[in-house]
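All the exercises in this workshop are built on plain-text protein records. A learned vocabulary of local backbone shapes supplies the integers on the structure line. Once this layout is familiar, the rest of the handout is easier to follow. An example says more than a description, so a record of this kind follows:
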Amino acid sequence: MAIVRWDPFKELLTLQERMNRLFDEVLPRTREEEGLGKGVWSPAVDIYETEDSIVLKAELPGIKREDISVEIKDNVLVLKGEKKFERDVKEENYHRMERSYGAFQRSFTLPNIVDKDKVKARYKDGVLEVILPKAEEAKPKHIKVEVQ
């Protein structure tokens, strides 16, 4: 069983995210407030670390690849894009509209261990995956212990 270091700030962030979700569910916005479902929205992301890289995965269902932008500037990774509203159906024909539409932007400060020149991004099945390789000097060095 692995020992996991307790991070109280991580738990506070998790609590804040849950509270935000609760208020979003309890206090629904009207169509007029959202502009027919358009408005500010933020795609969900997962960020994890491997031995060689940091990986960010963002859920972007229904968005075309050409409507997504990934940039790194001043040690900040910026995801931008737009989920366009489908104009095939008239507004008065909708019974319920829960999906969000419009532009989004997420920013993430990168740690100094990332090799910004080797960052790769790929988009498949509505999931954007950004691979941020670690610089060689930041990777753990394995030292062989000799027995005498």
About this structure: The mean pLDDT is 82.
